[in-house]
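Exercise 7. Predict the joint structure of the components listed below.
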Amino acid sequence: MISPGTMAAVRASGAVPNSEFLLEAEGVRKAFPGVVALDDVQFKLKRGTVHALMGENGAGKSTLMKILAGIYTPDHGEIRLRGHDIELKSPLDALENGIAMIHQELNLMPFMTVAENIWIRREPKNRFGFVDHGKMRRMTAELFKRLKIDIDPETEVRHLSVASRQMVEIAKAVSYESDVLIMDEPTSALTEREVEHLFEIIRDLRSHGIGIVYITHKMNELFEIADEFSVFRDGKYIGTHASSDVTRDDIIRMMVGREITQMFPKEEVPIGDVVLSVKNLTLKGVFHDVSFDVRAGEILGLAGLVGSGRSNVAETIFGVTPASSGTIEINGKPVDIDSPNTAIRNRMAFLTEDRKDTGCLLILDVLENMQIAVLQDKFVKSGFVQERELSRVCEEMSRKLRVKTPNMYERIENLSGGNQQKVLIGRWLLTNPRILILDEPTRGIDVGAKAEIHRFVTELARDGVAVIMISSELPEVLGMSDRIMVMHEGRATGFLDRAEATQVKVMELAAR
Amino acid sequence: MNTNVTAGDTPAGMNTTRRRLPPELNIFFVLIGIALVFEVLGWIFAGQSFLMNKQRLTIMILQVSVIGIIAIGVTQVIITGGIDLSSGSVVGMTAMIAAGFAQASTWGRVMYPSLTDLPAIIPIGVGLLIGILAGLINGALIAYTRIPPFIATLGMMVSARGVSKWYTKGQPVSGLTDQFSFIGSGIWPVVVFLVVAAVFHIALRYTRYGKFTYAIGANVQAARVSGINVERHLVKVYVVAGMLAGLAGIVTAARAQTAQAGMGVMYELDAIAAAVIGGTSLAGGVGRITGTVIGTVILGVMTSGFTFLRVDAYYQEIIKGAIIVAAVVTDVYRQKKRKV
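Solution:
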């Protein structure tokens, strides 16, 4: 079927010293500015197995996968392919060595046909040097027959469903005679039926000796398709087990075994009336029937894995992507929040997840960045900005938040991540919000700034602000929240009170 | 300039801190440099001073005033990250339509016999309205249908030129009243240019309108999340650009004491060039009116200088093209250096 003949012949006949493992990584370390993403990690993929990578967001799975696919080069460590040391210089290099990656966001060219996409760079040529489309079509059809894929090679990729595109990507990988296939959450956008088909193909590939690295957040998939799995936590390797040997609870324990070493400056403050009440909020295809209340002085943690809809809920409440149905009430009155402008007028503030994409005005200075949200009504007289008063207020704020910058006229892009974040927090505090939504407020910033930001949040809660805090870091959510709402696949799967919440309980609700 | 902020730095908020030198200073020195080159070449090749000639200096500015008025609008559009290709055609369109309401009864072939000898305020008002309307269409298309500014204003560029030809079936509109022609006479175009420049310099620096314009150009998503009604603001900016193109059309007709369908051809490109030479970044978020004014004057100095040295018109265009590209290359280089 998948020409095991050629592949096995070529590779088995080589000087491979009968290695048990197809792909091995050992002592791998990779650091990015400010974070060690992987620390002395190992990973071993056996021939003809599906090996799942498990871990919370930020555990290091993606980094490891990108190293194996040649996208990143590790700082330290060895990678062995079929028993030989290898250095992967680029994704193309990896591909030519038989390692193919199926990305979460698929990398096909929408306006080219399926066949063109598969054979790009390797198109069969006729004797005049032009592409031989007939031959290319036949080659594609043959490949699809082997893989039991039913797609017309002449269709343009943009007409295909996500599932079909994924099949095309897999076929492309197989066409390179890859024997290592890396799949990053391949089922995240598939229907149940499509998942079934995908699993059939995966089993078929496995039976031909191909090793599959499978990243997933879904426990049931792990038990259905994976032979082995490795768990990572905070960039460290925790262990590898056969999936038949363990239970769901074992895995969750391995994933969350993180110690809560940090001290959080959480204070018990009197909790007031309900400020924000969300009822049956739905954004079609993204999240459904989300309902919760937040009270004055309360910090509501929003936990869940990436893609569970946490950030989407926040964006909808703030009017960035208005809801398809459901109601939002502020102080008991229903409000129609159709834009961020309306949200701000209702004294909401929203620190977005992506500082660079939706937060900073990178090429503008600290002052301009801080004042932009408050120019709606305050500090403006008949169109003119009250520069003197405003810069005084901004300077005061930046002193209060201890922003480290040479002066207010420094471009924000020259500041460190933590200081950028403080400027953005300052931007929202100037609007004097009564509801504050923080999406990953401390991602990618150093420990010092992190602690400071936690302190500001605590102070705000003490002043009676209702806070919603989204975070992928469980210790942060557990340490700061009065209550935690956990989301999974666009639904709220449960609420936990501060007293009862543990990492295991949150993970159970987040990864069912 | 590339300050790395480390933990050792002091917290912000000292009142002694000031803004850096204005970025226009560089481009101002370029202007001085170009003028001096012509001065030296003038003594060598023409045996006389280039700059010490009051009449030449007046004409130098006068001939680019109309470009300058447009460029002030175009600068604002470019700061938002957009582009306006329609300004030249809008000049032609408003010149024609405004002139139709500015004819004197003494002229033989008037367009609207019952509407002659009107006070100048009427044709001026009509011209501004036409410009505003063109800007409104541009802005609404860009903000609400999300088509690229390049395409929306390209459409307007072609259509507005069509309107100016269709309006009189290609005939010029002449016999304009003295009252109307007055604003094109003498150095009045320069005065209009400088007043407009001052108004929008203040608007961009000190008003909410200006702050929002820069914010949208710097990061449209962040601007939206910060509560700016991005669509409405974009419409405003294109309306301002349209209105200024309309004003430029009025001044052009008044100065020529006639309106022709071909007025303003290619002005949009000169206006973009003036903005870009003056330091406005096509990537958005960066640009100042003072820079655009200097950029406009540079265009004027080059045209005057080449004419003064009797450089062939063809060579003039070749060199002008090269200078525009050089300005953008410098800009790109500057930005790169900043990021390292």
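Discussion. Chain B has one domain: 51-339.
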